[in-house]
Amino acid sequence: MHSVPTCEPLPQALVAQLHELFEEKIVFNRVMGLKVTALAPEGVSGRIVMRPELIGHYAHQRMHGGVTSAALDAMAGLAIVVAMAARQPAATLEKLFAKLGTIDLRIDYLRPAIGPHFDLHAQVLRLGSRVANTRMECRGADGELLATGSGAYIVA
User: Per residue in 78-119, pLDDT tens?
Assistant: First the structure.
């Protein structure tokens, strides 16, 4: 089994490129308002601030489940790119990102996503030569677990 490397903090230039890629170049992430808050080969974190455009149920003001799913999928992809960059420091982000694709995604919605913001976390469980497996979670502003996810991604 290939484990995810634990290594030094990411170079600042790489951190800036990752922020630009995931917050600006991926337009749907920008539409969701997804902001990266932590980057490390061991896991990544992000945040979405609630806005009226993200409401799925108008009477309860809860975030649409599709936003939760898409955000967790994006965070898993980010975690994989960071882990691959740590393993292959000479590779460009564009090259790493071009290889990445979702094979399978499972989201379990545990509680309604109601609140001022949502914190997202993802970690790579296994980074193989062809497939990566991830675990993700979405928490409310109070830290309560709202949704969990797991995914399998092609990386070759």
Answer: 999 999 999 888 888 888 888 899 999 999 999 999 999 999
End-to-end CA distance of the chain: 16
95 three-class SS = helix
How many other C-beta atoms can be found within 10 angstroms of the C-beta atom of residue 66?
12
Q: What is the pLDDT of residues 125-142, one digit of tens each?
A: 999 999 999 999 999 999
* Sheet with 35-40: strands ordered across: 35-40, 43-49, 117-127, 131-140, 145-154, 101-109
| Whether this model's pTM surpasses 0.85 | yes
Cα–Cα separations (whole angstroms), residue 114 to 53, 117, 126, 143: 14, 8, 32, 12
| Beta carbons of 134 and 153 less than 8 angstroms apart | yes
62-63 vs 101-109, strand pairing mode? unpaired
Is the Cα dihedral 15, 17, 135, 56 positive or negative? Answer: positive
Q: Is 129 helix (H, G, I), strand (E, B) or coil?
A: coil
